[in-house]
Amino acid sequence: MREPVAVVTQLSRQFGANLALNDVTLAVPRGCVFGLVGENGAGKSTLIKHLLGLWRAESGSVRVFGRDPVTDPAGVLGRIGYLSEQPDLPGWMRVDELLRYTQAFYPRWDPAYASQLIEQFGLSRDARVRTLSKGQRARLGLIAAEAHRPELLILDEPSSGLDPIVRRDILEAIIRTVTDEGRTVLFSSHLLDEVERVSDHLALLHRGVLRLCAPLEEVKARHRRLVLHFAVTRTNPPDVPGAIQVYGAGREWTVVCDMARTHAPSMAHHLGASLVDDSPASLEEIFVGYSDATAAAPGSHMRVVT
Amino acid sequence: MTHSSTGALLWEIWRRHRGLVAVIIAATAMGRLFDVQSDSSDSSVVAELLQLTSFVLLFGIFSYTESGDSRALGHFPQRLFVLPVSSLRLAAVPVCAGVASVELLYLMWLNPAASSGSGSVALHAILLGALMVCSQAAIWTLDRLGPFRLVVVGLLAVAAFAVGLLPSMAPSPPPPWRSEGVLSALTLAVSLLVFGWIWRHIARMRSGGGAGVLPVDLLDRILTACMPQRRRAFGSPGAAQFWLEWRCSGVVLPLLVLGVLLAVVAPLSWLTRYDADDTLRILIGTLSMPVVLAMAVGVGFGRPSFWSDDLSVPAFMAVRPLADAALVAVKVKVAAASAVVSWVLLLVFVGAWLTLWGNVEALSRLAVQLWAFHGQSVAAVYGIATLIVVAALFLTWRFLVSRLWSGLSGHRRRFFGSAAFFGLATLGWFILDGTRVLLWVVDDPAHMNIAAWVLAVAVVGKYWLAASTWRDLDACYLRRYLWVWLAGTSVFGVLALLLWNIVRIYVALDIVRFQGLLILVVLLAMPLARMGAAPASLAGNRHR
Question: What ipTM, to 2 d.p.?
Answer without folding.
Answer: 0.83
